[in-house]
Amino acid sequence: MSLVFGQVEPAVFQAYAFWAAVLALKMLVMSILTGLQRGSKKVFSNPEDVKPGGTVAYNDPDVERVRRAHRNDMENILPYFIVGFLYMFTSPSVFVATNLFRLVAAVRISHTVFHVLVPVHKFRGLSWAVGFFTTAFMAVRIVLHFL
Amino acid sequence: MSLVFGQVEPAVFQAYAFWAAVLALKMLVMSILTGLQRGSKKVFSNPEDVKPGGTVAYNDPDVERVRRAHRNDMENILPYFIVGFLYMFTSPSVFVATNLFRLVAAVRISHTVFHVLVPVHKFRGLSWAVGFFTTAFMAVRIVLHFL
Amino acid sequence: MSLVFGQVEPAVFQAYAFWAAVLALKMLVMSILTGLQRGSKKVFSNPEDVKPGGTVAYNDPDVERVRRAHRNDMENILPYFIVGFLYMFTSPSVFVATNLFRLVAAVRISHTVFHVLVPVHKFRGLSWAVGFFTTAFMAVRIVLHFL
User: Fold this and answer.
1) ipTM of this model?
2) Is a pLDDT exceeding 60 seen at residue A73?
3) Which top class of enzyme applies to this chain (chains A, B, C) (predicted)?
């Protein structure tokens, strides 16, 4: 048996897989950050989770900031996973493809840094925009390739 | 090296890749719509984002409507991406597979139209249901094929 | 045409596809559970959805509990889909890979059971942790393999 829908350069697949796994780990870290904030602020989302001295609340600014960053990852990184995967089948140059995969990983990490760790609106916005338009570029390439 | 887990018809992969990229672009547009609503209603989610005359709020009906539509996309389109991909390996007929991919893309676009642009409960519900049960159908086919 | 980026054992792909489809179906069920709760509590999220005797609200504890479980699925299962897929290309042993796929599916189902059906903090936390660290383990293997 062999898959018959196209060619992918091993170097391109290597870069995609490596940076996709890095981004998945980055997303998993968001759950840890949420848990740390919940523990330190003693703010929980289910009655059965509440620790002594804690409370159920959905408006703690620090907890909600991490959750917004996490949701932003879901809105942007999860579609990127399939877009980046399919983009490999559009015969991109190895140089362009590998660097776009690196770029998306870098700006999605910096997005979290500038949203949660050191909130800076300008840099967070720039990080988001670079990831957004890189993903859009890849998606448009897929649409044109498979038209 | 070759991937050895099954056969995919090029026409099926072409349809999957094309419509998956269209749906990814559709999802990206939700972020733009959210940003436009935030700008026009001057309602922001982080203190550092607030523009002159604006405020931080999480209950603006227009902003939240777009965000609900966006979350609905995440709940439905993101699982569909992997389900549609794996469905290709169940030896579906080219006619059925390509048309199911088109159908899911069409109803997920109409879902957003009837949720955000022209709110009509009945048509939005129908769009959601067609996408939902088509995805469920594909997932059941995968389960039966790889049992 | 053939895909040229690596070998995947048919038994590993079979296990991945089967359990990924099961998990996708499990996620789809969350939408049904949300709808059932909305109907029984008569609590809706859009003005145009409200049935006679119902209201728009975003703080019903039963509805919001299902929605939190659904979001937790999106945070954990959706990244797992790509991580599990790429993990297949790291030449894992058939025994380890197939059992990890089964494990993730089992604990993500038990997570929902202990969050929504029979809320038990301890068992829900354990289910979450096993799925989380299994996904992290696979992601680290991918990073090391494609370094």
Assistant:
1) 0.95
2) yes
3) transferase
How far is it, in rounded angstroms, from Cα C73 to Cα B78? Answer: 11
Report DSSP state, residue B113. I
Contact C17, C88 (CB under 8 A): no
Q: Which of C145, C135, C13 is nearest to C79 (CA)?
A: C135
Instruction: Give the Cα separation of B68 and C56 in Å (integer).
Output: 13
DSSP C120-133: -HHHHHHHHHHHHH
Q: Does A33 reside within a domain?
A: yes
A19 found inside a domain: yes
Residue C3 lies in a domain: no
Alpha-carbon distance A2 to nearest alpha carbon in chain C (angstroms): 7
Contacts of A65 in chain B (CB under 8 A): 46
Residue type, B86: L
How far apart are the C-alpha atoms of B28 and B41, rounded to whole Å? 20
Please give the pLDDT value at position B8: 85
- For residue C17, give its domain range: 8-146
Q: Do C20 and B74 touch (CB under 8 A)?
A: no
